[in-house]
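ARCHIVE CARD
CATEGORY: sequence design from structure
SOURCE FIELD: tokenized fold
FIELD CONTENT:
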């Protein structure tokens, strides 16, 4: 069963072990399971783009990716420690219209620009620049690696089985449980019979040699199991 229509395009950043400044990614065939060529590993751009830190501070995220060679962990740490950045356009726009602008810190500038945007149809580009930065980040998101794809398929199958008692996997699990139970019962019955024979008493199905020795059936556990399956 294929759940690829439910898959997000990219998975979480996992180990986040991108190469510093890495831009190129190597693609591999996914074994015919879908039409997507999958990267062997992810770039720093991908790890930053899918992070919550970048979604909260998209303009600074794009700026750091474009202007530095820092790894994704370093960039995300910088994003967490920084107030939301403004675009150059918004900053210049506000600087020309607000005489107090140069005296405000980054947090105050962000709040001032946001309020000005909401009251003036976003003429300062506060919202537009943020949305454009988010679009730029979205373009950096790469397809899942083969490992991520397989893990996502397994997770979706687990969730599907949890919601559907009559799924093929669940039916097979019940069948296997019953089969294992019957094998265990048959093996236990065969062990019990051996203990009874050890006391000198024969069990149904046994035969005796001329000298009186008790001979048990060959593969007694298998014979008992076959009888259970036949309903005997």
């Amino acid at each position: 069963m294929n759940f690829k229509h439910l898959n997000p395009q990219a998975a979480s950043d996992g180990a986040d072990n991108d190469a510093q400044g890495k831009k190129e990614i190597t693609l591999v065939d996914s074994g015919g399971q879908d039409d997507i060529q999958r990267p062997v590993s992810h770039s720093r751009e991908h790890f930053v783009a899918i992070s919550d830190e970048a979604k909260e501070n998209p303009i600074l995220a794009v700026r750091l990716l474009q202007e530095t060679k820092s790894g994704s962990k370093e960039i995300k740490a910088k994003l967490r420690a920084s107030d939301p950045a403004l675009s150059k356009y918004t900053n210049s726009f506000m600087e020309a219209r607000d005489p107090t602008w140069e005296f405000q810190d980054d947090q105050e500038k962000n709040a001032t620009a946001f309020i000005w945007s909401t009251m003036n149809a976003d003429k300062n580009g506060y919202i537009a620049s943020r949305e454009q930065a988010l679009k730029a980040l979205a373009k950096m998101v790469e397809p899942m690696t083969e490992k991520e794809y397989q893990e996502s398929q397994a997770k979706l199958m687990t969730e599907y089985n949890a919601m559907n008692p009559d799924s093929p996997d669940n039916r097979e699990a019940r069948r296997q449980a019953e089969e294992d139970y019957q094998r265990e019962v048959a093996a236990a019955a065969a062990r019990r019979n051996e203990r009874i024979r050890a006391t000198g008493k024969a069990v149904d199905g046994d035969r005796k040699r001329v000298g009186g020795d008790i001979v048990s059936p060959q593969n007694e556990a298998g014979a008992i199991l076959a009888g259970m399956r036949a309903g005997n």
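CARD ANNOTATION: Confidence is low (pLDDT under 50) at residues 1-14, 20-32. The chain has two domains: 4-148, 166-230.
SHELF: design records, drawer C
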